[in-house]
Amino acid sequence: VEVQALVSPQNFGTAQRTVSGVERSRVQILSALLDRRLGLSLCGQDIFVSVAGGLKAAEPAGDLGLVAAVISSYIDKPLPKDAVFFGEVGLAGEVRGVSRAEDRVREALKLGFRRAVLPQRQAKELKGSKIIKEAELVGVGDLDGLMDALRG
Predict the structure, then answer these.
(1) What pLDDT score does 14 carry?
(2) Where does 48-100 have alpha helices with state H?
(3) Strand pairing of 83-85 and 17-20?
(4) 56-90 in b/e burial notation, b at 16+ Cβ within 10 A?
(5) pLDDT tens digits along 103-150
């Protein structure tokens, strides 16, 4: 699924969290994490998140993509078009492993993606896979690691 985000300074009152296709509470939690763990000042920003195509994304593996989309909008730097992001983000800012990581990367390759940003442990496990050798695997252990990957 494609997750889109727009972060914009709020015009009046309390900042909004407007969502389509994801749970509002998940966006609120992840926004608070970005504020607390990375120092992004999101409390005064309206955040709009949408899953393209009207799909619903309830799986925690989508956390990393959602966070990457919000960061991308906040710093006004587009995400690489050839990259896919997956991983669960915990309350301490750690990126947790998800089920079927190899299948996810394989499917992303079939769809034309060449780079996968995924939990660090799983990236290490997959780097030896013959099937996955044409993909660039970027492992991240926490939100700081994600920021480094987005800068580089």
Answers:
(1) 86
(2) 63-75
(3) unpaired
(4) ebeeebbbbbbbbbbbbbbeeeebbeebbbbbbbe
(5) 999 999 999 999 999 999 999 999 877 767 788 999 999 999 999 999
